[in-house]
TrEMBL record:
Keywords: Endoplasmic reticulum, Heme, Iron, Membrane, Metal-binding, Monooxygenase, Oxidoreductase, Transmembrane, Transmembrane helix. One of its GO terms (molecular function) is oxidoreductase activity, acting on paired donors, with incorporation or reduction of molecular oxygen. The lineage of its organism: Eukaryota, Metazoa, Chordata, Craniata, Vertebrata. The gene is CYP4B1. This is Cytochrome P450 family 4 subfamily B member 1. It is found in: Endoplasmic reticulum membrane.
């Protein structure tokens, strides 16, 4: 009797549970449909490429060449178009300077999708925060990028680069092309760890950093795939899939690395001698500021906030510069005449010295123009997203209400032929001072623009100049025609098959 009663109540419980799940699912569906309706109504005055009823434009976005697909759409829809990822997530995709200015000169918050997808990894750091908390953190961290702090980093960038170049010297002996992306990544991470996290010199590719590097690689790929796969937008579904579990495993590896970095610096701070050294420094580095200072209102960062900032800077500070340096070297290999001119300039600046000094960086005029042209054609961050906190009116009279989602397609903006004649042509003179004068300030946005621009842009520009200058002194770069890179958007601009280049050592007096 008891087992029968027990099994009856179990089956009733099962029925109730399935009913509840169905009801919750139904409620969720209604919410999603209402959201779709309001996003679609908001974008009424904008058309777009034909959409699939279920996938929207997601299938096109998943294809190789999706970045160039968007560029082809910009010819049909000159200012902006609707972009649907699945049935419920719709952005207004913009790529015109006045449109970009209308949104990006304001401080609207980041769009929940996709930034919420990276929260379990980088937490609520500067990249995703908004409102007073963002302002407070930005103010706290800005001094870490003061030029007095950046000055000594020139030597650090040079030392990490030399370690990479020594490795390349070995590889070049085989007279075969090789993928430079991964080596550049380890070098950029090493530089960042030394500059902002106080790592001591100890060579590239430590196993701890290697695992972190690979974890970040997986996290960016997985996040991009999650954005493009609408079923994965739902947390409940995502965490149940093998994809979601891989994401959590990679997060764990990244967090272990971050925790270790924080622990080591905290331990060093216990040491009275180390503390005195820090107090005597006029400018504190990024981690000193996070660990030691309190802002004017005496608000100290919680452990979670501190870890979020470390995770944010660790990711933003190396993956972006890796992409920037790798694509720049690809451009140099592709356009040897510009490569020669840059090398000549660097040789002239150095004279008989073998390392750069701070003042040299402002003399690298041609190299800087080539770097900017490479950022135009291969922006390391090709797409950024916002959610409007108030309505916006665009120059052509169209508008969007609060709550609308915006995707700024930096890659397409930089190929907008109304600003950039012959956009596919690599022409560094676009960035000569005469040609820059009069150009729309929102036409070139590799570091975004407005209040939420990149806090690390000066750090990044310095690093790219030092690293590429030294690379050009040591090697001649040529393409491997059998392995052209396949552009791939993984939050950051990467290549599906790496960036394979042939390197020819330039012999003595080459900046060793
Ligand atoms: C060539 C290299 C770099 C490029 C192209 C780049 C690009 C960008 C872009 C486009 C944004 C805006 C993101 C958005 O709106 O979602 C951004 C924000 C940010 N970047 Fe960079 N970045 C680079 C290097 C760095 C470095 C070296 C650091 C740190 C050391 C850094 C730290 C950040 C942070 C913390 C933010 C968020 C700023 C805020 O919202 O206040 N970036 N970056």
């Amino acid at each position: 009797m008891v087992p029968i009663l027990f099994s009856m109540s179990l089956s009733r419980l099962g029925l109730w549970a399935s009913g509840l799940i169905l009801a919750l699912g139904f409620l969720k569906l209604i919410c999603l449909l209402v959201r779709r309706q309001s996003l679609a109504r908001a974008m009424d005055s904008f058309t777009g490429p034909p959409t699939h009823w279920l996938f929207g434009h997601a299938l096109e976005m998943q294809q190789t060449g999706s970045l160039d697909k968007v560029v082809s759409w910009t010819h049909q829809f000159p200012y902006a178009h609707q972009l649907w990822i699945g049935p419920f997530l719709g952005f207004l995709n913009i790529y015109e300077p006045d449109y970009a200015k209308a949104v990006y000169s304001r401080g609207d918050p980041k769009a929940p999708d996709p930034y919420d997808f990276i929260l379990p990894w980088i937490g609520n750091g500067l990249l995703v925060l908004h409102g007073p908390k963002w302002f407070q953190h930005r103010k706290l961290l800005t001094p870490a990028f003061h030029y007095d702090v950046l000055k000594p980093y020139v030597a650090v960038f040079a030392s990490s680069t030399r370690a990479m170049l020594d490795k390349w010297e070995e590889k070049a002996r085989e007279h075969k092309s090789f993928d430079i992306f991964c080596d550049v990544g380890h070098m950029a991470l090493d530089s960042l760890m030394k500059c902002t996290f106080g790592k001591q010199d100890g060579g590239l590719g430590h196993s701890r950093e290697s695992s972190y590097y690979h974890a970040v690689y997986n996290l960016t790929v997985l996040t991009q795939q999650r954005l493009q796969e609408f079923l994965y937008h739902n947390d409940f579904i995502y965490w149940l899939t093998p994809h979601g579990r891989r994401f959590l495993r990679a997060c764990q590896v990244a967090h272990d690395h971050t925790d270790q970095v924080i622990r080591e610096r905290k331990a060093a701070l216990q040491d009275a001698k180390e503390q005195a050294k820090i107090q005597n420094r006029r400018h504190l580095d990024f981690l000193d500021i996070l660990l030691g200072t309190q802002d004017e209102n005496e608000i100290k960062l919680s452990d979670a906030e501190l870890r979020a900032e470390v995770d944010t800077f660790m990711f933003e500070g190396h993956d972006t510069t890796t992409s920037a340096i790798s694509w720049f070297l690809y451009c140099m290999a592709r356009y040897p005449e510009h490569q020669d001119r840059c090398r000549e300039e660097v040789r002239e600046i150095l004279g008989d010295r073998d390392s750069f000094q701070w003042d040299d960086l402002s003399k690298m005029t041609y190299l800087t123009m080539c770097i900017k042209e490479s950022f135009r054609l291969y922006p390391p961050v090709p797409q950024v997203y916002r959610q409007l906190s108030k309505p916006v009116n665009f120059v052509d009279g169209r508008s969007l209400p609060a709550g609308s989602l915006i995707s700024l397609h930096i890659y397409a903006l930089h190929r907008n032929s109304s600003v950039w004649p012959d956009p596919e042509v690599f022409d560094p003179l676009r960035f000569s001072s005469e040609n820059v004068t009069g150009r729309h300030p929102f036409a070139f946005m590799p570091f975004s623009a407005g209040p939420r621009n990149c806090i690390g842009q000066q750090f990044a520009m310095n690093e790219v100049k030092v690293v590429t200058g030294l690379c050009l002194l040591r090697f001649e770069f040529a393409l491997d025609p059998s392995r052209p890179p396949i552009k791939s958007l993984q939050l950051i601009l990467k290549s599906k098959n790496g960036i394979h280049l042939q390197l020819k050592p330039l012999g003595p007096n080459s900046g060793k």
